[in-house]
Amino acid sequence: MMTKDQILAFGPVPSRRLGLSVGVNTVPMKTCTYSCIYCQLGPTVDLTVARRPYYQPDSVVRATLERIDRSPRRPDYVTFIGQGEPSLASNLGEIHEALKAQWSGKTALLTNGSLLWDPHIRESSLPFDAVLPTVSACSEEMFRRIHRPYRSLSFKKVIDGITSFSESYSGQLWVETMLIAGVNDDEDSLRAIGEILKPIKLDRVHVAVPIRPPCEKWVKCPSMESIDLALRMLPRATDTTTPEGEVLPSRTEDVVRHLLDIASVHPLREDQAIDLIVSSGRCRIDASTMLDSLVGSSALERTEYVGRVFYAGTKKASERR
């Protein structure tokens, strides 16, 4: 049974890789196979590889179509991403099929790729227009340091699964490599990651950095020199390290609820949050006052990271929905 703080769909939000995207949640908050040190949503609550149907397909599709309808323009993608690892939903394929019966646009699966060794998950991932798995390590030790995976997952098992999927997938396979200062951004590590990526039949490698407040406070963005090195050394590398644009308002919806729904799964920069409120007809002073009030009531949490202020949702935000 769903509780009121579980958001089945959110957005639209800007994406560096996918344009304007409506997000889909197939699992509860922080249900994941990893507990990545750089995750913007904090530590994993339910670390697991066990799959089950968390939500009914018709509920997810209905919530997603409502978000599409409220979008100020047609989304570029509907993205299965949400609050954890989407492939942990055993009915992932059923949800996607039900959505595609009513949505003719493109869909993307933003996954860490940790379960693609499972033939059932590979099969349910094939219909997506784009699949975006993660490869940020070059060894078992680095894999465990960065991702802190469920105990049964090994680096080789994950890479073999992604490679196997790439051999049968006909859509766009965009691998993300998250760079972390002092962990995987040196020349030797990048060269080794490049070798790991070579057998994978990928279309792009998205070089990324932790641009929002990470789970572990010691995690830092790499230098521009390291980013440039990665762009030169990784195959088909594309720079996705720059911040996204403004978050567009959602039509016919309370701006506070829209703000809280997005911030719960997609922490917002202060300029994004203010622009979103202003676009609903408020002035900038009112926007700042509203943000202060939401922080004061514990509906939002204000954090500073790399010289920027961010707003993230809290558990108390559910009381406003």
What is shown here, in short?
The protein is an alpha/beta fold. Helix content is 32%, strand content 18%. The chain has two domains: 231 residues, Aldolase class I (TIM Barrel, Alpha-Beta Barrel); 66 residues, Arc Repressor Mutant, subunit A (Orthogonal Bundle), CATH 1.10.10.
* Uncertain stretches: 1-5, 317-321
Strand % is 15-25%
What's the CATH architecture of the largest domain? Alpha-Beta Barrel
Number of strands: 13
Assembly classification: single chain
Share in helix: 25-40%
Gap between N and C termini, in Å?
A: 17 Å
Shape by Cα distribution: globular
Which series of helices and strands comes N to C?
A: EEEEHEHEHEHHEHEHEHEHHEE
Summed up, the domain count is 2
Account of the 3D structure:
- This protein has 321 residues and is of the alpha/beta class.
- It has two domains: 9-239, Aldolase class I (TIM Barrel); 255-320, Arc Repressor Mutant, subunit A (Orthogonal Bundle).
- The chain is 32% helix and 18% strand.
- It has helices at 57-70, 92-100, 119-125, 140-147, 155-168, 187-197, 224-233, 255-263, 270-278, 284-296, and strands spanning 9-15, 19-24, 31-32, 46-47, 77-80, 106-110, 130-132, 172-178, 204-208, 237-239, 268-269, 300-305, 308-313.
- The strands form three sheets. The chain has an eight-stranded mixed β-sheet. Strands 11-13-12 form a three-stranded antiparallel β-sheet. It has a two-stranded parallel sheet with strand order 3-4.
- Helix 2 links the parallel strand 5 (77-80) and strand 6.
- Helix 6 (187-197) packs parallel to helix 7 (224-233) and helix 9 crosses helix 10 (284-296).
- The radius of gyration is 19 Å and the shape is globular.
- The model is unreliable at 1-5 and 317-321 (pLDDT under 50).
